[in-house]
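User: I'm putting together a teaching handout on how multi-component assemblies are represented. Below are the sequence lines for each component of a complex, exactly as they appear in our records. Could you produce the 3D structure of the whole assembly as structure tokens, so the students can see both representations side by side? Please keep the chain order the same as the input.
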Amino acid sequence: MAVVSLLNVPDEHPAVRDAWFVRRCTVTPASAPGPLSDLLRLLGVQPSETAGELDFLIPLWRVRSGATLLHEGAPAECVHVVRSGTFKSLKTSEDGYEQVLGFAGPGEVLGFEALCRGQQPMSAVALEDSTVYALPVRSLDGWRQGSPALDHALQFALSRQLARVGEITEMMAAVAAEVRLARFLVWLSAHMLECGQSPRRLRLRMSRRDIASLLGVAHETVSRSFGSLVEWGYLRVDNREVEILDLDGLKAFKRSTRGFADQVSRRHGAGTAASPPARHAPVGVAA
Amino acid sequence: MAVVSLLNVPDEHPAVRDAWFVRRCTVTPASAPGPLSDLLRLLGVQPSETAGELDFLIPLWRVRSGATLLHEGAPAECVHVVRSGTFKSLKTSEDGYEQVLGFAGPGEVLGFEALCRGQQPMSAVALEDSTVYALPVRSLDGWRQGSPALDHALQFALSRQLARVGEITEMMAAVAAEVRLARFLVWLSAHMLECGQSPRRLRLRMSRRDIASLLGVAHETVSRSFGSLVEWGYLRVDNREVEILDLDGLKAFKRSTRGFADQVSRRHGAGTAASPPARHAPVGVAA
DNA sequence: CGATCGTTTGACGGTGCTCAATCACCGTGG
DNA sequence: CCACGGTGATTGAGCACCGTCAAACGATCG
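Assistant: Of course. Below is the structure of the complete assembly, with chains in the same order as your input.
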């Protein structure tokens, strides 16, 4: 409870127990559970692979925007698979600072980290109204034995999860703040593509502060970095709406690494219109 | 092959095919495979849990210091479990910069990230002479079905792996370089303890440059940060031998987060010789 | 014993953090 | 309807930290 009280939990604080909080920040069972086949589709399994398997129902939860699906320190009860929506994973330190560790979208697994110690090492908060499949830890082994397809899909998803955190680390490792943001945007773009969305038009579900926390910079720096990327013609930004104007250029720019930072500073010194790969004209909005 | 040629592979380059390279940088089968029970012990399974299970032999490899166990871009053939020694995981960018993503010791899984795409997303290099169990991807499903204990142990290890990368992210997210290094040392200390080693006497297997890469700072900054931690009385350092003099103080210090960076800077201003070990209040006021 | 690599220390310049003020947006309540 | 407080985003100014360049020292291995 000591740990839980640090988080944004509807406890103790009187104001949070009424009004909009109860309406908005809740985790409730969905109207109906979902079929296993839908879960498998989410995890990337082809329908042909599940031929002849039993199709049973999986508990489905509805998580409203702002609600905390997983509480840091809470016991491990369910492993979740995001069906729709977006989540952020975070750790809260004693002084209340929220360290964002990653973002999760459809098909991603949440809460698996808790199995080894029996309690959640991090929290998960919905960034928009979302739905998740809930796989009780106790049922997990049985379900996996009953459905080889589910077993494979989970292995697959965990493998992908591990590969993704490598990408997260790469983002934070970049020297310049603009490069970090560029890597983040390219990463996000790739994931929107995987989800069948447009890779150029991004609707950011997270605040600047969340992005800043993930990238390890101040949130003002994120604002300024957005400004720079816009000025250099890579983006068009309107609050949380981001349109990538030059995805290839952005991918080239994000490769700037330590030891080659001169490429970055060169951008500043030499006119912004000269050095970028292909684009001179400020296609989008002028500063 | 295009990707592989970027790495330190004993191919094409004539110099690497002879002399010390062949002797030192090799991955070879060990003299004999190891029993499954030993693998399960590594992964943290209690012997009692495996009662009545078949004990078969698992291929065991020997990896010499400096050898590359996993090549970025290579096809996924085996999942490895470190039996002894230490590895670093890294991605090599086009310009040759090595981004270290993590370190792995006994009981940790290497190469699982490759399952989802069929090829290694990162390389793994031995930092000392090491041994690893090799679980061929083709045999994996069969072995897991044949041994529920192995199945559970792998799930457990993967969960732990995911929890660990969260810790890595936390390290890189710290503001001040000294805090990052402190977090790294505390992290390392905890893992030495898990492996039955002393949590206070650390023998660093990795270079300053590797640490710097992981923490996202310049390697000179790592040197200077070591100097600061020594000056403040937390450590005693002799090259790669590190003795932690005040583990509790170091743990308190590592909690410094963004938004509370004044704690750090205050350390510099107020005489450096005055503040060190006593550690006034973790989060409270200094001076 | 010599060569190569790793580590340490110094000086300088720049980037990004901190502290602020301002503006836009939203839901609430007058 | 508009005033109001709250949150998030943007922009500016100042300064400290850290990255870069450079050189010296130390360790390791052939």
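A couple of points students might notice: Residues 175, 207-209, 219-220, 222-224, 226-227, 239, 258, 261-262 of chain B lie near DNA strand C (CB under 10 Å from a C1'). Chain B is about 35% helix and 20% strand.
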